[in-house]
Amino acid sequence: MKNKVALITGAGQGIGKAIAVRLAHDGFAVAVVDYNPQTAHQVAEEITRAGGKACALNADVSKRDQVFAAVEQARELLGGFDVIVNNAGVAPTTLIEDITPEIVDKVYDINVKGVIWGIQAAVKAFRAEGHGGKIINASSQAGHVGNPELAVYSSSKFAVRGLTQTAARDLASSGITVNAYCPGIVKTPMWDKIDREVSAAAGKPAGYGTAEFAKRITLGRLSEPEDVAACVSYLAGPDSDYMTGQALLIDGGMVFN
Membrane-spanning residues where (predicted)? Predict the structure, then answer.
């Protein structure tokens, strides 16, 4: 991946951080993008200390102009643009009867619109560079099978699969591939929050939600962020050049296709 540049949104912690670290290990120059500038800088510094090349950028992916600005900054600072990983997301638990317009707007602005803006910004950058590229979107096993108490989140991740398929068809002639990765239950701060909310809703102590969901994992353990990063590494590298429009499940066997 010498001289290749990758940008990852939501890379200040959790899965996004693991992806940034893995792609830097693979040889990419990495743009670490997060709405929290402090965590973005920490991850970029960690990569740099390990001998990689990285920059930290601040952006709220729900804001189209900020996504475009981050991609353009990455091009200028790192000297090119080859891969975008639209990873940023939120996952509030929502009983059907408790869904509010505010929850729908927040989740869709980040999980769906953020992906659209990332796709658009990447296409613009690839064309400015005069070559194709790879667009990699964060879906979920909850984007294959509706998950209880996650109606808004699940529906947003189904939408990402649809965007991925359509963009793959629309952009193939430009030499751009578009794929998605679909994690299951990953040990991240986001999952800790889901566990607390699901457990509380059931009147149970923290950890109950995780134990209930984990019963559905064929491999018998929760995912580490590095498991997901390994899948993204494949999608970002040359071995996946003949793949487009796919949404790879990396969930330990929760959903079988």
Answer: none
Let me know if 242 is a catalytic residue. Answer: no
pLDDT given at position 1: 59
118 is in an annotated binding site: no
- Helix H or strand E encompassing 240: none
Q: Is there a binding annotation on residue 61?
A: yes
Name the nearest CA neighbour of 207 among 222, 228, 225, 219: 222
Fold topology of 5-184+224-250: Rossmann fold (3.40.50)
Q: What is the pLDDT of residue 242?
A: 98
For 39, 60, 146, 165, 192, the CA distances from 101, given in Å and listed in that order, are: 30, 20, 20, 27, 24
Mean pLDDT in each 10-residue stretch from start to end of the chain (257 residues)?
89 97 98 98 98 98 98 98 98 92 98 98 98 98 92 97 98 98 90 85 89 87 95 98 98 93
- In one-letter notation, the amino acid at residue 159 is A
Answer yes or no: pTM beyond 0.85. Answer: yes
60 is in an annotated binding site: yes
Which of the following is catalytic: 153, 181, 234, 242? 153
Give the chain's end-to-end CA distance (angstroms, integer): 31
Judge whether 189 is annotated as a binding position.
no
Query: Strand 133-138 relative to strand 176-183: parallel, antiparallel, unpaired?
Result: parallel
